[in-house]
Amino acid sequence: MKVVKFGGSSLASGAQLEKVFHIVTADPSRKAVVVSAPGKRHSEDTKVTDLLIACAEQYISSGDAPELCEAVIERYAEIAQELHLDQHIIERIRDDLFTLLNGDKSNPVQYIDAIKASGEDNNAKLIAAYFQHKGIQAEYVNPKDAGLFVTNEPGNAQVLPESYENLYRLRERDGLIIFPGFFGFSKAGDVITFSRSGSDITGSILANGLQADLYENFTDVDAVYSVNPSIVKNPKEISELTYREMRELSYAGFSVFHDEALIPAFRAGIPVQIKNTNNPAAQGTRVVSKRDNTNGPVVGIASDTGFCSIYISKYLMNREIGFGRKALQILEDYSLTYEHVPSGIDDITIILRQDQMDGSMERQLIRRIEEDLQADEVIVEHNLALIMVVGEAMRHNVGTTARASKALSEAQVNIEMINQGSSEVSMMFGVKEAQEERAVQALYQEFFAGVLIS
Amino acid sequence: MKVVKFGGSSLASGAQLEKVFHIVTADPSRKAVVVSAPGKRHSEDTKVTDLLIACAEQYISSGDAPELCEAVIERYAEIAQELHLDQHIIERIRDDLFTLLNGDKSNPVQYIDAIKASGEDNNAKLIAAYFQHKGIQAEYVNPKDAGLFVTNEPGNAQVLPESYENLYRLRERDGLIIFPGFFGFSKAGDVITFSRSGSDITGSILANGLQADLYENFTDVDAVYSVNPSIVKNPKEISELTYREMRELSYAGFSVFHDEALIPAFRAGIPVQIKNTNNPAAQGTRVVSKRDNTNGPVVGIASDTGFCSIYISKYLMNREIGFGRKALQILEDYSLTYEHVPSGIDDITIILRQDQMDGSMERQLIRRIEEDLQADEVIVEHNLALIMVVGEAMRHNVGTTARASKALSEAQVNIEMINQGSSEVSMMFGVKEAQEERAVQALYQEFFAGVLIS
Q1: What is the pLDDT of residues B65-115, one digit of tens each?
Q2: Is B161's Cβ below 8 Å from some Cβ in A?
Q3: Number of Cα atoms under 13 Å in the Cβ half of residue A314
C-alpha cells in the first residue's frame, strides 16, 4: 500500500489534476492521497496559501478583504469549471472560508494559522469531489476525525505520537482517502500548521501511521539533483540516496523535499520515492535506509548562503570548564540556533544563520560574550556560505577530504572553516559568499565529472 | 633587563650549576633568576620533587620517612660539596625540611603542596649561597615577601593580579634575585603550587611583574623542534614563532615549555627566548607577538594520543535549541573537560582526553546522554590521536588544507575528524592512535621537506 503526496504545482489547475487522477488510479495500491493547496500555474502566479495569509491579515486589520477572498475562491472555481464539477463544491468552500474568516480573532496567530490551513483543506474537498465525479470511491478525510494531533506550536507543529495509532485505523476504510496536508489539530481542537511546505510532513506521517510500503512524493522535477542546477548546468540526477544523505542535502539549500518530512518515514523504515507529476515515467529519486555505493563517495553537494560566524578567543579557554557551554547558553538566551561550533585550543567559532539577529542584537550579544565570558576577542564575520559535501561512502574513504580541499584550492577558494566529525556522512566547508559558486563548481567537477548522467 | 629561568636538568648537579653561573654572570642585564628543584642527572635518576612527594605521603601514612628525607638532603649536600660551599646551607635546608614535615597534616593536600614546593625553595637558597660564595651580590627572595599571591588551588594555582605590582618593587633591589619557581602564597599565607613544571609560570610572572625586556628560559634542548624528534629524525628547529603558535604546539605533546607559562609574558608583550644550558651558544627559539612568515605556512606539527570521541546523533538535533549546551552541561556535571566539538546537522562529536573517565563513568555518561537528551545513538571511540598543524600563515593560505589532507591520504591515513575554525592558526586532524606516527611523518614530509635545517 502506498501513500501519495502531491505538491502545489501538481494541483494548480484542472489540467494538472487530470494528471494526478491518472497517476493515482494507475496503481490500485495507491490508497491515500495527501494534497497541498493549489500552487503557482506559472512563475508570476501567487500560491493560494499566500493569498490566504494576505486575506487573514487584512481581515484582522480592517475586518474585510473582499478582493483577496474572491481571488482565493476563484482559484478553486476555475479548477472546478475546468473539470466540469458541480458548483456545489465551490459553495461549500466559500461557506467554509467565510465561516473561518468571521471567526474568533482574539488569538491572531491561531486565526491566521486556521485560514492558512484552509488552502489544503478545501483543496482536499475539491479533489475528493473530482475523484467521485470520475466515478472513483474517494473520500475527503478531516485530520481531526482521523486523529492527527500535534503540539500547540502554530507554524511549527510537531506530531504527537498517539496520532500514528489513530491514523492506522484509516486502513479499515474502503476506497481512496483524500487527506489535506500541512496541518493537524491541537488537543484543544485548534488547527495548527506545520512549518511552511509542511504537506510533505503530513504525507510522511500518514505513510508511517498507515504502515505504507512506500511514500510517493510527486513534485515538479524529475529527480533530486546532485547539485543546484542554477550553479551547475545539467547536473547528475540522484537515483537513490539514504535518509541521512537526503537530510543533509535538504538542510543546505535543497528544497525538493521538506527538511523535517523524512523523519516519520525514516522511523518506520518506509522508502520515499520522489517523482514528477509532469513526467511520471521518469525514474525519480528513491530515499532508503541503505544503498549500494557505486558512483564514488559523494552523492550530492549542497550549499546555502546567509551565515555568519562569531569567533571568540580567550587565552587558556581550553582549561576553563564550562566555557563552551556558557557561550552556547548566551546564544540560547537570545533564542539563537547555531549550525556548527568548530573550536581551537583557545577559541571557538559559532556559525549561525545571520538573519536571526539584527545589528542591535548582535552588539548586545558581543557585549555579553565579552563581559560574561571575559573573552579576549570577539569577531563577527558576515556573509558566509556553507557547503555540504554529502555521501555515506565518505565515512571511511581515505582521500575524500584531500580531493575536496585540493579542488577548492585549485579554484583559488579560501576555506574559512572545515568541519568533519567522526561517523560523518558529510563534510562542511565554510567560504565567503562571493566564492560559493566557484567552490561548488569545483567540487562538482572533482566528484562528478566523468560520471555518466544516469 | 632580563628574567632567566633554569629547569631541573640545568640544576641537577654542581657541574650544571657552574654552567648556570657562567650564563647568568655573562650578561649583566640578567637580573632575576628563577630556579626549579634539582632534576634528573641521568635518565634513571629521580627528580627531587618526586622524592619529596613520596616523602610527604609516607609521613602522612606512617609519621616518618627517614630514607626518603636523607635522599632529598643528600641531593643538595652533593651539589654543595661539589661546589665547595659551607655546610651551613645544608643544615638550613635540613632544618627547613623537617620543620615542614613535622608541621600540620590536618589538610593533606595543603601539606603535600608545601613539601613539594620546598624542592624549589631550598634550591633557590642553595643557589643564592653559591653565587654569594663566588663573590656575586645575590639574594634568595621568598615569594611571600615578594608578594606573589595566588588562588587557593593546590597544584593548580592561578596568579592574582595584584602580584604583578608587588613584584615590580623587586626592581629596587640591588644585585641578583634568586627566586624559587613553582609556587606562590594564598592570601591566607599557605604555600600553593602551580601545575606540574610550574617554574616556567613563575618565570613568566616575574618577567611580567618586573617589566623585563626578555624572559629567557634555559632548558636542555637547543630549540623547539618543528615536530617530535621521536617521530621524525633530526627535525627542523624553530628559530621564531608567535605566542599563539607556541601555545598550540605546547598543548598537544610539546613539553619544552609549560602550556600556561606563556600567558603572563604574552600579556606584557615580553618575548620568550628558549635556550640550552648545555649549549648556550645555540640560537634557541624565540617566542614573539608577531613574526615574518618566511618558511611556508606551517611552523610546527604536534600530536598527542589518549583521546576518545563521544558521537551523539539525534534526528533534527539541529532544530532543537540548546542541544549542544545540554550535552556540554552533562560533561560538566562529571567535571570533564573536552577539546573539540565538531558537529554535523544531526550529530555532535565531543573529543576529550580519555584518562578523565573510567569504564563506569563512561557507562553512566552514555546513559545520561541517551536519557536526558533522547539521543538516537551514542558511540564512544577510544584511542584517538589529535594532530595539530600549526602556523599563523595558514590563516589565509589557500591550499594548506589540501596539502595536509592529500599528504595524509597518500600515506593511507584515514582522517576521523577535521576541525578548522575561522581565524585559526591551526588545523586539527583526528586519527586512530595506530596511525599517528605515519600521519605526522607524512605531514612533516609535506611541509618541511626541502626546507633547510637552520
Answers
A1: 999 999 999 999 999 999 999 999 999 999 999 999 999 999 999 999 999
A2: no
A3: 18
CB B314 within 8 A of CB B375: yes
Specify the domain boundaries for CATH 3.30.2130.10 within chain A.
Answer: 300-448
Among the partner-chain residues B342, B406, B426, the one whose CB lies closest to the CB of A421 is: B342
Above 90 in pLDDT, residue B279?
A: yes
Beta bridge partners of A238: A224
CA distance B134 to B137: 9
The SS3 assignment for A16 reads: helix
φ/ψ (deg, to 5) at A318: -50, -30
CB B340, CB A417: distance < 8 Å? no
CA distances for A229 relative to A233, A368, A385, angstroms: 5, 42, 17
How far is it, in rounded angstroms, from Cα B191 to Cα B403? 50
**DSSP code of A278?**
T
Cα A26 versus chain centre, distance: 28
- 3-state SS record for A305-347: EEEEEEEEECCCHHHCCCHHHHHHHHHHHCCCCEEECCECCCE
> Are B325 and A340 inside 8 Å of each other by CB?
no
Give the architecture-level CATH label for domain B300-448.
2-Layer Sandwich (3.30)
- H or E stretch including B56? helix B48-62
| CB interface of B with A, residues 418-447, below 8 Å | 418-428, 430
Surface-to-core class of residue B264, CB atoms within 10 Å of its CB (0-12 exposed, 13-18 middle, 19+ buried): buried
- B343 in reach of chain A (CB within 8 A): yes
Q: How far is CA A35 from the centre of its chain?
A: 15
**Residue A361 is which amino acid?**
M
Indicate where chain B has its CATH 3.40.1160.10 domain(s): 2-220
What pTM does this model have? Answer: 0.76
Residue B99, phi-psi category: left (phi > 0), alpha (psi -120 to 50), beta (remainder): alpha
User: Which of chain A's residues have a Cβ under 8 Å away from the Cβ of B413?
Assistant: 398
Distance CA B147, CA B163 (A): 6
User: The domain A2-220: what is its CATH number?
Assistant: 3.40.1160.10
ipTM computed for the complex: 0.71
**What is the rounded CA–CA span in Å between residue B423 and residue B417?**
19
Whether residues A337 and B321 touch (CB distance < 8 A) is answered with: yes
Residue B269 has pLDDT above 60, yes or no: yes
Give strand ranges (E) for A15-156.
Answer: 30-35, 138-140
Q: pLDDT band at residue B141, thresholds of 50, 70 and 90? A: very high
Q: Which amino acid is at B97?
A: L
Give how far B268 is from chain A: nearest CA, Å: 13
B58-66 contacts, C-beta under 8 A, 24 or more apart? B59/B101, B59/B105, B59/B115, B60/B105, B60/B108, B60/B111, B60/B112, B65/B101
